[in-house]
Design a protein that fits this description.
The protein is 30% helix and 26% strand. It is of the alpha/beta class. It folds into 2 domains: 160 residues, Rossmann fold, CATH 3.40.50.2020; 140 residues, Rossmann fold (3-Layer(aba) Sandwich), CATH 3.40.50.
């Protein structure tokens, strides 16, 4: 087994190889003066089971292209199997035709991954689970929930209610509520644009409760902050947000600073700077990804990583 890292999140890859106990694969990744990416694999990979770790976080197109080029180099160097490890799978929100003459870019990215040489994909908390069906190769879909659960249980939150910030996140919120033995509520919202949402109403009892908002990703934080504002107006005692992928652009950071969210709990699937004035708790998923990589290499069960009291959802 050999593990190589793209440039999107080297820190996470270093933690993964530390957990597994093997050295990081040696490769050269640099840019030509015109911006083109150059890759050279600096060690023998003939017949090896290779894993390439690369989140497709901003700059998304650059990181995707770098991943394709790395896999092509490994394929031409006669690696026996190449697994694309995408802690964050970009373009996942473009998973359907919801208006005329638009692409299904999540499917296009799946096709490009296979064309570049991927034999298998390992990813975490897809925005839409049906994206797994876009591939004709095996997809191992991990969840950050086990890491989140361990942290939340140390908080000993009483009167906890798990809230989905929109209808699409009900299944995730329900899974959290079952494991944490908490109530469930939903915020009904209407999206104005790609960066603006308007929260409408709350379905469920949240008065004088500790509220946990759960979502798979946030960038502009419009959904989270509008939901938190509405929940506080409806009598919530405290509002925490649990988000797997916090990409957070400048607009999102500014909104969170002014928001009613007391703590943002997220993971290190994407690399981002520390933000002043934000109470952000970043949990590592390196051990989870590392264990999954070990099991894939050993042809062992990955699904058993998510068994909680007989549940695997």
């Amino acid at each position: 087994m050999k593990i190589f890292s793209g440039s999107s999140n080297r820190q996470l890859t270093d933690s993964i190889v530390d957990y597994i106990g093997i050295p990081l694969g040696k490769c050269t990744v640099k840019a030509f003066p015109d911006g083109e990416t150059f890759v050279k694999i600096d060690e023998n990979v003939r017949g090896a089971d290779v894993f390439v770790v690369q989140s497709t976080s901003p700059p998304s197109n650059h990181n995707l292209m770098e991943l394709f080029i790395m896999m092509d180099a490994l394929k031409r160097a006669s690696a026996s199997r190449i697994t694309a490890v995408l802690p964050f799978y970009g373009y996942a929100r473009q998973d359907r035709k919801d208006q005329p003459r638009v692409p299904i870019t999540a499917k296009l990215v799946a096709n490009l991954l296979v064309a570049a040489g991927a034999s298998r994909v390992l990813t975490m908390d897809l925005h839409a689970q049906q994206i797994q069906g876009f591939f004709d190769i095996p997809v191992d879909h991990l969840y950050a929930a086990p890491v989140m659960f361990q942290y939340l249980k140390t908080k000993n939150l009483d009167n906890l209610v798990v809230v989905s910030p929109d209808a699409g996140g009900i299944k995730m919120a329900h899974a959290y509520s079952q494991v944490l033995k908490a109530d469930l509520a939903i915020v009904a919202k209407r999206r104005k644009s790609a960066t603006e949402v308007e929260s409408m109403s709350v379905i469920g009892d949240i008065e004088d409760k500790n509220v946990l908002l759960v979502d798979d990703l946030t960038e502009t934080a419009g959904t989270l902050t509008s939901a938190a504002s509405l929940l506080k107006k409806k009598g919530a005692r405290a509002v925490r947000a649990c988000v797997s992928h916090a990409l957070l652009n400048d607009l999102g950071v500014e909104r969170l600073r002014k928001s009613d969210i007391d703590e943002l709990i997220t993971t290190d699937t994407v690399l981002r700077p520390d933000f002043e004035g934000l109470n952000v708790t970043t949990l590592t998923v390196a051990n989870l990804l590392g264990e999954a990589i070990k099991r894939i290499n050993n042809n062992a069960s990955v699904n058993s990583l998510f068994e909680y009291s007989g549940r695997t959802d």
